[in-house]
Amino acid sequence: MDRGTVGSANMGRLQVEVRSEGPSAVVTPVGELDHHTAELLREPLEQCLADGLARLVIDCARLDFCDSTGLNVLLGARLKAEAAGGGVHLAGMQPVVARVFEITGADAVFTVHDTLDQALATD
Description:
InterPro entries: Anti-sigma_ant, STAS_dom, STAS_dom_sf. This is Anti-sigma factor antagonist. The protein is of the alpha/beta class. The protein has one domain (9-121): Transcription Regulator spoIIAA (2-Layer Sandwich), CATH 3.30.750. It has helices spanning 8-11, 38-50, 68-83, 95-104, 116-121, and strands at 14-21, 24-33, 55-59, 63-66, 87-91, 111-113. Strands 1, 2, 3, 4, 5 and 6 form a 6-stranded mixed β-sheet that branches. Helix 4 (95-104) links the parallel strand 5 and strand 6 (111-113). Helix 2 (38-50) packs parallel to helix 3. The longest helix is centred in the middle third of the chain and has 16 residues, at 68-83. It is globular.
């Protein structure tokens, strides 16, 4: 297990891709979302909201791991997106990530889709 310090050594553990698709910001985290890498996701989510994109679609298909800190980043983004008239949609969760949402009950507060296409087709 990587026990390195926060900083550039951990940046390779999570990469975040962002693109606009119609009224949605599609945010794709790739790798591990944990307390070392959470800021790498928080910053682009907040930038999307600042840019007026309140409908956030998180493509979780390439997210290998999510701990409670990562979950809190997504919950915080959900609250801010809803306050701006939008929401957060999660798509394509791997079983190991989906399990974290099930155990914590967070799957009940997010709109969860099997695929990215389904998430983009939903209002």
